[in-house]
Each structure stands twice: as C-alpha cells, then as structure tokens.
Amino acid sequence: MTKTKKPxxxxxxxxxxxxxxxxxxxxxxxRQLYRYDIEGSIAHCRMLAKQGIISDEDEKKILTGLGDxxxxxxxxxxxxxxxxxxxxxAVESFLIDRVGEAGGKLHTxxxxxxxxxxxxxxxxxxxxxDVMGLIGILxxxxxKLAKEHMETIMPGYTHLQKAxxxxxxxxxxxxxxxxxxxxxRFGECLKRINVMPLGSGxxxxxxxxxxxxxxxxxxxxxxxxxxxxxxxSDRDFIAEFVFDAGLTIMHMSRFCEDLILWSTEEFGxxxxxxxxxxxxxxxxxxKNPDVAELIRGKTGRIYGNLITILTILKGLPxxxxxxxxxxxxxxxxxxxxxxxxxxxxxxxxxNVKFDCEKMRKRALEGFSTATDMAxxxxxxxxxxxxxHRLAGKIVAYCIExxxxxxxxxxxxxKNFYGGFDEDVYKYLTVEESVNVKNVPGGTSxxxxxxxxxEIESNRD
Length: 460
Description:
The protein is mainly alpha-helical.
C-alpha cells in the first residue's frame, strides 16, 4: 500500500508537496483520538450493514480489521506518518491495507467533517466526566480540612486588609462552594457535548439510507444534531469547556495565592509540607511554594487557550473550514493542564498545616471587632450610620492612645456614647464576633457546622 495516496487524488494531477503535508498534518496531536475514531467507525460500520448499504461479509472484515488496528495502536506498533495527515486517514489507510476493498467502503455516508466532530465530542465527553470527578476529590479534601478546623478563628480580609474574624472552616468551605459551581457548569456543558453529529456528511447530510439514531444508540448519545451545517461547524462546546476550565483554574489560583501569601514569614499562617515545596539553588534557607505558584501560572495557559479558540471561530464562514484543525491543541492542552492541576492541588491540600494560634492572635488585631461594636450600639437603639461613626471615632482614639478596643474601660467609652455598659466586652471577643454571625451563610460555628452536614448528606 502507498500510504501517501490521498482519498481525493482523483481530482488532482500532482501529488501533495511534502512541505504542505508537514504543514497541514494534524496526526502528531490528534493521534490521541484514535480510540474514539475507531469506536465511531465500528458503530458506523454496523449501521451500514444493518441498513444493507454494505454486506454482512464486508462488515465482518471491517470490524475484525478495526479491532486489530485498535490492538496494535494500543501497543504502539503502528507508525503514524505525517503523510497520513490525520487520525481518520491513518485508520482508514491501515484498514484498507489489512482487509482490502472492503476497507474502502467504511467511509460510505460520512465525511471527515462529521467524523472529527464525533471524535472530539466522544473524547471531551469522557474528559469532562474525569474533570468533574477530580473536582469532587478536591472538594472532599477541602471539606476534610474544614471539619478539622471548626474551632479555628482567623482574620478575614477585604482589600487585603484585616476586616472581621471568621472561622477557617468557613473560609475553606467558600472554595468548596466555588468548585461546586464549577462542577455544575461542566455538567451543563456535558449536555451540549453529548450530541451525536455523525451522518451530517461534509455539510448537507447524505442521500444514502443511513440510521443516525441507531449510531447514536450504539455510541451512547442521547440525542442527534438537528442541522447538518451546524453539526460540522459547531465548536461552541469546546469554547464552553475551555471557559469553564478557565473559571475552575482561576478558583484554584486564588486559593494558591492565599497559600503563597500565608506561607510567608510575614503571615505565617500555613506551612506546606516539604514534599510539595522546593528549595533554592543558591539560598539554603529557602522553602518555596512552587506547586501553588505553578498552578497560579498555568491559569494563564488556559486563558490563552480560550482566546485561541474564540479567535479561530470568530470569522469563519459556514460551514467547515480547515482552521478548525487548530482547535485541538488548545483543547488537549487545557484538558491536561486542568486535570494535572486539580490532581496536585487535591494532594497538596492534604499536606498543609495551619498555625491556629497565630491566626487567632492576628484576628484580634486591626480592630476587627469594630463592626461588632457598631452593631452593639444598634441594639441600644442608635441608628447604624451614627453607630458606625461612633465606632470609627473610638478606633481613631485607640490608634492615638495605642490601645485596642477591649482594653478601653467603660468610662472611656461613655465619653463617646453614654449608653455603653459592661456588656459591651462580650461583643469585642473574636469568639463572640464569629458566633454572633448566626444567619444562613454566616461564619458562626452553628451555621458552618450545619453547612458541613449538608455537604456530607449531599443536600444543597
């Protein structure tokens, strides 16, 4: 067999230039679709035989040949030369080489345009399920940490300034909620991926009596595409997946940024295990949070891949254009980057140690209970805007006198408002500040414990 023979050579008087072959070939990266290409071809072959388009004898030969090719591909026995151009031509060429004329009948009623659309959807369908599973593992790691720190108080931040005391468990479950949304988005994306395009042909369908629903049944697709032109040109589901991946790794990046900051001597809230950090080639004292930094950095790769996909699609006329070959590398890279980042972050989350005492001590600083003082005054009948102003004046007084709120005596407080009493002090402890936030979604131990139990029982 001459592997460089093209399926369209009847129209051309000259062979394809070798440089053109190298430039246009996608076999180097779309080879990872081979299982899906062969699985789709098996289903297509069975449908052709069922419809009487090919004979039972040819069906048997084709199916045997495809099985042998799959086995050899799994063992790395087949040479995927760039002259074969893409995985679809490679499989077909190997098949014809093994079973002869019968192999040339497999492509009946389909085009590479709907074939590649099928392969990508089957590939991404599996990968999305894997991604959702990995997100679930990361959520479990965060939830486990949260349950270990139901009593740990830390300073909450806005604008990277100390704001109000919160539970560390509340902080960790905030990321659990982010990843829950991510998983839900992938689940919605999966519905739009899981649509069967084969049978759309090059763009117009086919005049042969094929049975698309039968193929969809064999390949476990719940529905088929409704418009052949849209089916071969649609890559919305790829853009949607990469966008969802971008949000997910952005959430991971934010968590990693906190770990990076908190592991510095300036914060000192967390220590990442040695096995998930690296050292310096020149400074022997260094312990660097490289895993967290790399996840933060890889966020940019996925953002770039999204821009690549959207740019490829933005100016394409109907229907299929060769530009669409360029969708695979950013897609494959996104899948690999996201899955590897999810896996390593889940492992790292189980290998961190929080300095609970330091976090509580820092939560006491920065007048973090000033809002609680203002709310105390509200309970005394003071309008909030006035109580806010009074609390601000008291903070300014503390700064001037180098005091903290809890160190002020009642006489000093009465200089600002006569309604202050001894009961104010219970509102100025970090424990009371946390536990008084006993509204749904708040940081009180009761509410955080309730949410933790809901997570364990899968109730939302």
